[in-house]
Amino acid sequence: MPIEQRGVDTIPDGERTSGPRDLVSILLGSNLCLGVIIFGWLPPSFGLGWWASVSAIVAGTVIGTLFTAPLALVSLRTATNLSTSSGAQFGVRGRLVGSVVGLLLALGYTALTVWIGGDVMLMVLGRLFGVPADGVSYALVYAVLAAATVAGAVYGYRVLLAMSRVLAVGMTALLLLGVLAYAPHFTTAALPDAGGYLLGSFWPTWFLAAVAAGLSGPIAFITLLGDYTRYISPARHTSRRVLHATWLGLVLGLLVPQLFGTFTAYAARAATDYAGPLVAASPPGTWSRCCCRRRPARSATRG
Fold first, then answer.
1. Cα(first)–Cα(last) distance of the chain, in Å?
2. d(CA 52, CA 186)
């Protein structure tokens, strides 16, 4: 696939070949990652029980989506991203605010993905192959994840869309398998190691969880939705269909990974840390057990 050429340019109508289904795929597939999953861990770490955590995440996500999703219609009409489109209301200088906010959000999510993803990858490699968790290993894993992120950004929308179509199905299936794997250890009670309600009582802690884990998800897409809908032609798809697709994509794309993070947090008793307990609580595969059995046999033979 070619490198992205348009940048913040207006997309010609002939190149606006995406549709509402593509929008759902990209909002779902691109969010099925550890950088989003870990937000589901926040309510358990605040001292909430299972049902309180779920209700906080769902309420915050739904409310945030209702207010955020209509922004997708702006770029449907302007054929450029939301930061550039905002120049019509705020001028060239005023739109820099949106550009800076979008840049900070992108950097924040990239750093979170590289950090959390690197930790989990290295823990898994250490568990399966004995890779040491030293500075060199962390540097190599972080470098690989950062390079993959940069490559995706350089090649742009078409590569992201193609990957999301696969990830939307593949990652959802893996998350379902993860639920089955962690289910035997699942509990609905608040985690004792969390130390009680973070803000001292239920409702303040619940509202904090609703904002931090629920509302923050849709809000993070305020400057991003236009990057996807500018590739949809209003001559072929109505605003209503695009708006409904945005609602569905945001709700599924945020709730599926975050609720998986919430579920596994209780199953792994991950109160103060997520990545470590998650890997430690995962059931070993048959092939890894076989590998572990072979090592003592080899040393015994040598002895």
1. 55
2. 15
- DSSP-assigned letter for residue 283: P
Instruction: Please state the separation of Cα 92 from the chain's center in Å.
Output: 31
Beta-carbon contacts of 131 under 8 Å, excluding residues fewer than 6 positions away, are 122, 125, 137
Q: What's the rounded Cα separation, in Å, for the pair 230 and 93? A: 22
What 8-state DSSP symbol labels residue 210?
A: I
- Would you list the domain boundaries of the chain? 13-302
Write the pLDDT tens digit of every residue in 238-257.
Answer: 999 999 999 999 999 999 99
Nearest alpha-carbon partner for 266 in 202, 172, 179, 175: 179
Nearest of 133, 120, 143, 139 to residue 35 by alpha carbon: 120
The predicted model scores a pTM of 0.85
Residue type, 242: V
Q: Two tokens at 294?
A: 């072979």
CATH code of the domain made up of 13-302? 1.10.4160.10
| 2 three-state secondary structure | coil
* 7: its two tokens: 């940048």
Q: Which residues touch 126 (CB under 8 Å, ≥6 apart)?
A: 132, 133
Residue carrying the six token digits 């120049």: 87
Reduced DSSP (H G I as helix, E B as strand, rest coil) percent helix, strand, coil of the chain, to 5: 75, 0, 25
Q: Which two tokens stand for residue 6?
A: 């348009």
Q: Report pLDDT digits (tens) over 93-115.
A: 777 877 787 788 778 878 888 88
Rounded to the nearest 10 degrees, how much is the dihedral formed by the CA atoms of 163, 169, 175, 177?
-130
| Amino acid letter, 221 | F
d(Cα 127, Cα 121) in Å, to the nearest integer?
Answer: 10
Which residues contact residue 112 at a Cβ distance below 8 angstroms, ignoring those fewer than 6 apart? Answer: 35, 38
How far is 170 from 29, CA to CA, in rounded Å?
9
DSSP state of 48: -
